[in-house]
Amino acid sequence: MYDTPNTERAVDQKDIKFSAKGVQVYYGDTHAIKDVDVALEDKTVTAFIGPSGCGKSTFLRCLNRMNDTIDICRVEGDILLDGEDIYDKKVDPVQLRAKVGMVFQKPNPFPKSIYDNIAYGPRIHGMAKNKADLDEIVERALRRGAIWDEVKDRLQAPGTGLSGGQQQRLCIARAVATEPEVLLMDEPCSALDPIATAQVEELIDELRTQYSVVIVTHSMQQAARVSQKTAFFHLGNLVEFGETGKIFTNPEDPRTESYITGRIG
Amino acid sequence: MPTLWLFLIVLGVAAAGYVLGRGRALQSVEGDNRKLHSLPSYYGSNVLIKVVVPAFLLMIAWLLIQPIVVGNTISGMIPDRSVDNKGSLGLVMAEVRRTAEGLDNAIAQGLMDEDFVNNARADLADVTQRLKDAGQIVTSEVTQPILNAAQRYRVMNATGNLMMTIAVLVLAVLGALWGLRESHGDFRARNTVEKSIRALLIGAASIAILTTIGIILSLVFNTIEFFRLYPASDFFFGTNWAPSFSGRGGSSDLGVLPLLWGTFYISIVALAVAVPIGLFAAIYLSEYASPKVRSVAKPLLEVLAGIPTIVYGLFALLTVGPLLLKVFGDDGLGIMQAGTAVMTAGLVMGIMLIPFVSSLSDDIINAVPQSMRDGSYGLGATQSETIRQVVLPAALPGIVGAILLAASRAIGETMIVVLGAGAAARLSLNPFEAMTTVTAKIVSQLTGDADFASPEALVAFALGMTLFVITLGLNVFALYIVRKYREQYE
């Protein structure tokens, strides 16, 4: 009785971006994701937490079909982006990935100049009419990646020459440059020091105004700091999903409580 | 005693030493392994090393030095008169050795006995006749000085061998005793063995390096010798290659340019075939092929690398040449005179180089981290866009290194050229004409009857040196690029 109006209000405020129903993922014979149902909202940061090997990264990679590049991986169930099944035969995974950008655990700038790293996506998708247009896209992406001031004087320097934190922000800027609707982040701060982590977290918070962001993290403090919604995975199951504040202060499932208090994981 | 037996006896002593050393070490701690400094086998190995190494070193040194010492003594015995008759000391010495061998064999057959052989006043005609009866080759009548020298030669060698046997055996036993004395629980046998292994590895490395230095020095000195006989400027800038084998010096034109041009032309044709095919094969194998296809196709492709180049040469001569002639020859386009041409050799050499380029490039493409590809796919790039714009640029320096290695292989190739490209040294742009390369000419300069001191033969060393400098330069360049590549994704 109490819950019903509450969810309705949430749906009114935010549109559902991704909705997953009965998702199963197999790696060969291993059943990695078991029957996951979840609805991710637009313009929201959703955090996936859980112990190592619980399937949170696997599920994240289902959202932009990155698992297609792994031969033995099999996905069942429905994942809808804006109401369209992304595993439908008509959907081109390449187009999908342009809409659902991804930032990886380890910074992976291409061995190209900073400028070319950012311009890579826009060039592929023909987003710029001319050089000036491309320059503008690059500058906007770098500004949104909060790295413009540090690199504006050396855009032709190799991207691999930046520090770890700068490289990760470059990769975020690179993902932003293709104007995705959703940004998936797979432990984006695991290779970074606390200062770089703080910069990236600040950036995630800013990105929320335009994109829906899904972030996988091992740090519960980070999940609490940056996300509005949190999903807790355990052994391939989605155990609990809800408001971040509620998950961390008043979890419903005993497993969630055990993980948050450090008893499992 | 034959050297083989001595060798086996030393090995036997070493094996006994191993067992004894191991046993003695165990005995010193009353069979309790844990009180030993090292594992028991290390004590055994320590004794073994102390037997084998000094004994064999002495044996090798003795076997190298004895012939020199004996040779010097014997040649001092031979009067100048006999040398004058034969023309040179070397020929006389050869005859002495032959006679000595003949005497040995005659004894073995039972036609002579030791006393008869060692009789300094033996009847020369009788000795000669008996040697001939024994089936030994004796060029002419055995003369007195030669017989005496041969007798002395046999005696000296016999004593030398006996002394060597004794010395080696004594050294082996001494080594065994030394090692056994050390074999007690506190001795750090493990560290000693470790040092010996290091010495062995250093030895192997220095042999490789010293041999290289030796080869280079011999090239350099012979090249200098050649330039003393033939002007360097004519060699490097001459456009005509016409060695004359009839007279000595003067009449030959030994310009290297036509050969270098042939080498480069054929190599370029070969690379034009090998690089695209090899590279595309590598991309398919590393990026598109399923593991099953890859596990079959890659070894199959590498079989190409195992085919001897002479077989490729036959393929060029018997298949590719006639095929090209049919299309471009007088019956076809009429621009090809004979089956042997730059195109024939280049095409076949290109096929030979495909596995080089593909195998090396495949490894390099595989070494590009998966995270690069993920990053590109994550931005919505297709597979070929990813390969073209991310994977290949990242792998490019390594691929260039692979291509340069293939190029130095092409430049050094001989057999395919000999059979496929002909032997005419020519400066021409027509790829359907016969040409030849530096390596093929080195072969033809040295397989004739030319005197080794003539410029016509010595030019081979200058050609070899030129080739060596070029391939060395290419290899250094390739290494430099590969090293630069390593810094790419740091």
Outline of the structure:
The complex is a heterodimer of chains A (265) and B (490). Helices cover 39% and strands 25% of the residues of chain A. Chain A is an alpha/beta fold.
Description:
- The complex is a heterodimer of chains A (265) and B (490).
- Chain A has 265 residues and is an alpha/beta fold.
- Chain A has a single domain, classed as P-loop containing nucleotide triphosphate hydrolases (Rossmann fold), CATH 3.40.50.
- Helix content of chain A is 39%, strand content 25%.
- In chain A, a hairpin with a 2-residue loop joins β1 and β2.
- The radius of gyration of chain A is 19 Å and the shape is globular.
- The N terminus of chain A is likely disordered.
- Chain B is mainly alpha-helical and 490 residues long.
- Chain B has 2 domains: 185 residues, no CATH class; 246 residues, MetI-like fold (Orthogonal Bundle).
- Chain B has a two-stranded antiparallel ribbon.
- In chain B, α2 packs antiparallel against α7, α2 packs parallel to α8 and α14 runs antiparallel to α15.
- Chain B is flat, with a radius of gyration of 32 Å.
- Chains A and B meet through α3, β6, α4 and α7 of A and α14 and α15 of B.
Instruction: Specify the structural class of chain B.
Output: mainly alpha
Count of individual helical segments of chain A: 11
How much is the radius of gyration of chain A in Å?
Answer: 19 Å
CATH topology assignment of the largest domain in chain B: MetI-like fold
Broad shape of chain B: flat
- For the record, the CATH class of the largest domain in chain B is Mainly Alpha
By DSSP, the count of extended strands of chain A is 10
- How many angstroms does the end-to-end distance of chain A come to? 34 Å
In CATH, what is the class of chain A?
A: Alpha Beta
Q: Greatest interface and its residue counts? A: A-B, 29 and 23 residues
Write the CATH fold name of chain A: Rossmann fold
Low-confidence stretches of chain A: 1-12
Radius of gyration of chain B from CA coordinates: 32 Å
Helix content of chain B: over 70%
Largest sheet of chain B: 2 strands, antiparallel
Question: Averaging pLDDT over every residue of chain B, what do you get?
Answer: 84
How would a textbook summarize the main sheet of chain A? 6 strands, mixed
Shape of chain A: globular
Written as H for each helix and E for each strand, in order along the chain, the element string of chain B is HHHHHHHHHEEHHHHHHHHH
